[in-house]
Amino acid sequence: MSADDGDHPARRALRSGNRVLAGGIAAIVAILLVAAAFLFWSLPDANAFNALVERIFVENDALTTGDQIRLLEILAQSGTAFSQVLASYRMIIFVLLVFATALLIAALVFLVMILSLNRRMEAIQKQGIQVASLIISRGENAVVLNDMEFRLTEAAIETLSVLAEARMDDDILTGAQIESVISGKAEADCDEAAGAMRIKRLRDALGNQMVSELLVRNIARRGYVLAVRPDAIRMI
Question: In the Cβ-directed half-sphere of 2, how many Cα atoms lie within 13 Å?
Answer without folding.
Answer: 3
